[in-house]
TrEMBL record:
Its cofactor is FAD. It comes from the Bacteria. The lineage of its organism: Bacteria, Pseudomonadati, Pseudomonadota, Gammaproteobacteria, Lysobacterales. This is FAD/FMN-containing dehydrogenase. The keyword Flavoprotein applies. One of its GO terms (biological process) is respiratory electron transport chain. InterPro entries: FAD-bd_oxidored_4_C (IPR004113), FAD-bd_PCMH (IPR016166), FAD-bd_PCMH-like_sf (IPR036318), FAD-bd_PCMH_sub2 (IPR016169), FAD-linked_Oxase-like_C (IPR016164), FAD-oxidored/transferase_4 (IPR051264), Oxid_FAD_bind_N (IPR006094), Vanillyl_alc_oxidase_C-sub2 (IPR016171). Belongs to the FAD-binding oxidoreductase/transferase type 4 family. It comes from Vulcaniibacterium tengchongense. Keywords: FAD, Flavoprotein, Oxidoreductase. SUPFAM superfamilies: FAD-binding/transporter-associated domain-like (SSF56176), FAD-linked oxidases, C-terminal domain (SSF55103). Residues 36-215 form the FAD-binding PCMH-type domain.
Length: 461
C-alpha cells in the first residue's frame, strides 16, 4: 500500500485483507448498473465483526467514506464506489452461525449468498421463502439493505417479514443488537426495521437472524399466453379467486425474444404478445380441477390464447427460466432500468397509462417489460437503439423516467419497488416521499452516521 492512511488501517487491524489491485477495484467498485466508473480507494474484506468495527472507527478518524458491499447485484447504483471510498466487502463473512429448532430461526453472517441460506434451511426441513433469479450471487446483507422482494412476495412478503434480528455496526463503530429474535417486542422504536431498506446508509449489517417456515405444499407451474395487454389483470383476478397463488409473473414478447436468444426453448409454436408464468399450490385433484377451470374461463373470455403446465420439476424449471433469465439475457445490451410499484388495485389504470407513455416516448427503442403483477411491481428495461451514444441514451431515459415518476405520484406508487434508490433514482425520490419525510430521513441519517461516511451520496445528498 502506498497510502499512509491504509498503512494505518493495516496496523490497526493486523491480518486484514486489503487490496488495491486495479482489477479488484473495478470488480468491487460497481454494481449491475455499469453507468459509473469505479474508483475506490481500496477494498477491505474483513473476516469478523470486530474487524468491521475497527474499519468503521478508522474511517471516522481519517474521514474516509465507506461503501458496504454484498453481491452487488443491485440496479440502482447503491453499491457504486466512484469517489475514492473504501469498499467494505462482506463476502468473507458468509457462514451459518446458529440454528434454533424451537424458534425456527437461522442466524447467518451478512455475506452469505441467498442460495446458501435456501440450502441451509432445506437441510433442516424448513424454508427461507424470499427468492429471486440472482439467488446465487446476491447476499443476505444486500437483500436486507434493499428489502428485496422477488418472485414469491404474493405469498410470503418481502425480506422485511423474515428478519427476526440484526447485528449492525453503526456509523461510529458501535455494535447494535436489534430485536434479538423476539416475536413480540414493544420496547420503543424498532431499529431493526429502520435498518431494513436503508441501503447501507445507517449501518453495516454484519449478522442476521432469519425466520424460517414450513415448505409449501407441492406446487404446479403454468405458462399462459395472452393475446392482449388489457386482459392481464383479469387473468390475475380469475386465478387468484380459484387458486392459492405463490407467484404470478408477467413478461412481454420482447422479453421472451431475448431469453430465447440467450438459449431458452420457445414454449409455443407461435408467438404471443404477452405471457404469464404462475405458480400455485397443487398436489391433489381439486387443485388441478381449479387450475383447469381458471384456464378454461380465461380462454372462453378471450383473455388467454394458449397455455402449458409443467408436469415435472424439469418442465417447471424450463418455464421459470423464461422469466428468471430475462435480466441476464438483457445485461449485454446495458439496458436502462426502472423498478416501480403501485397498489394492486391501482395496477390496471397505471399499466394503461404507462403503456401509452412508453409507446409515445420510446418509439425507436426496444422496451422490455416484466414484473411481479401479483404484488404491484413492474420492471421496465429500455435498450438503446443501434449507434446511439451512451450519454444521449441515458439523458433520454432520464427525461422519460421523470414523466414516469409523475405518473407514479398520481397513482400513489413508488419509484423503487425492490432495488433501492441508490444513485439512479435519487432525483426522483420526491415523487414517492414528501419533503417532511425526506427531512426526517436526513435527521435519522445524522443520528446513526454523524460524519456522513456510510454510503454517502446514495438515497439523497
Amino acid at each position: 500500500m502506498t497510502d499512509a492512511r491504509l498503512d494505518c488501517l493495516l496496523a490497526r487491524v493486523p491480518g486484514l485483507r486489503l487490496t488495491r489491485d486495479p482489477a479488484d477495484l473495478a470488480h468491487y467498485g460497481r454494481d449491475w448498473t455499469r453507468r459509473w466508473t469505479p474508483a475506490p480507494l481500496a477494498v477491505a474484506l474483513p473476516g469478523s465483526v470486530e474487524e468491521v468495527q475497527a474499519i468503521v472507527r478508522w474511517a471516522n478518524e481519517e474521514r474516509i467514506a465507506l461503501v458496504p458491499s454484498g453481491g452487488r447485484t443491485g440496479l440502482s447504483g447503491g453499491a457504486v464506489a466512484a469517489n475514492g471510498e473504501l469498499v467494505l466487502s462482506l463476502e468473507r463473512m458468509n457462514r451459518v452461525l446458529a440454528f434454533d429448532p424451537v424458534d425456527r430461526t437461522l442466524t447467518v453472517q451478512a455475506g452469505i449468498p441467498l442460495q446458501a441460506v435456501h440450502e441451509a434451511a432445506r437441510e433442516r426441513g424448513l424454508l427461507y421463502p424470499v427468492d429471486f433469479a440472482a439467488r446465487g450471487s446476491c447476499t443476505i446483507g444486500g437483500n436486507i439493505a434493499t428489502n428485496a422482494g422477488g418472485i414469491r412476495v404474493i405469498r410470503y412478503g418481502n425480506t422485511r417479514e423474515w428478519i427476526a434480528g440484526l447485528a449492525v455496526v453503526a456509523g461510529n463503530g458501535d455494535l447494535l443488537e436489534l430485536n434479538r429474535g423476539l416475536i413480540k417486542n414493544s420496547s420503543g422504536y424498532d431499529l431493526r426495521q429502520l435498518m431494513i431498506g436503508s441501503e447501507g446508509t445507517l449501518g453495516v449489517v454484519v449478522e442476521a437472524t432469519l425466520r424460517l417456515t414450513d415448505p409449501p405444499p407441492p406446487g404446479n407451474t403454468m405458462l399462459l399466453a395472452l393475446p392482449s395487454f388489457e386482459g392481464l389483470m383479469r387473468v390475475f383476478a380469475a386465478f387468484r379467486e380459484r387458486l392459492t397463488l405463490q407467484a404470478f409473473e408477467f413478461f412481454t414478447d420482447r422479453a421472451l425474444h431475448h431469453v430465447i436468444a440467450h438459449g431458452a426453448a420457445a414454449p409455443f409454436g407461435q408467438a404471443h404478445p404477452f405471457y404469464v408464468v404462475t405458480e400455485y399450490a397443487g398436489g391433489d385433484e381439486a387443485a388441478e380441477a381449479a387450475a383447469l377451470a381458471a384456464f378454461e374461463h380465461c380462454l372462453e373470455q378471450g383473455w388467454v390464447g394458449d397455455g402449458v403446465i409443467g408436469r415435472s420439476e424439469a418442465q417447471a424449471a424450463q418455464l421459470w427460466r423464461l422469466r428468471e433469465g430475462i435480466t441476464e439475457s438483457l445485461a449485454p445490451h446495458k439496458p436502462y432500468k426502472n423498478d416501480v410499484s403501485v397498489r394492486i388495485s391501482a395496477m390496471p389504470a397505471f399499466l394503461a397509462e404507462t403503456q401509452a407513455l412508453l409507446a409515445r416516448e420510446y418509439p425507436r427503442f426496444d422496451v422490455v417489460w416484466f414484473g411481479h403483477i401479483g404484488d404491484g411491481n413492474l420492471h421496465i428495461n429500455v435498450l438503446p437503439p443501434p449507434g446511439m451514444a451512451d450519454g444521449e441514451f441515458v439523458g433520454h431515459c432520464e427525461r422519460v423516467t421523470k414523466l414516469l415518476a409523475e405518473a407514479l405520484s398520481r397513482h400513489g406508487g413508488s419509484i423503487s419497488a425492490e432495488h433501492g434508490i441508490g444513485l439512479v433514482k435519487k432525483p426522483y425520490l420526491d415523487s414517492t416521499r414528501s419533503p417532511a419525510e425526506i427531512a426526517l430521513m436526513r435527521g435519522v441519517k445524522r443520528a446513526f452516521d454523524p460524519n456522513g461516511l456510510l454510503n454517502p451520496g446514495k438515497l439523497f445528498d
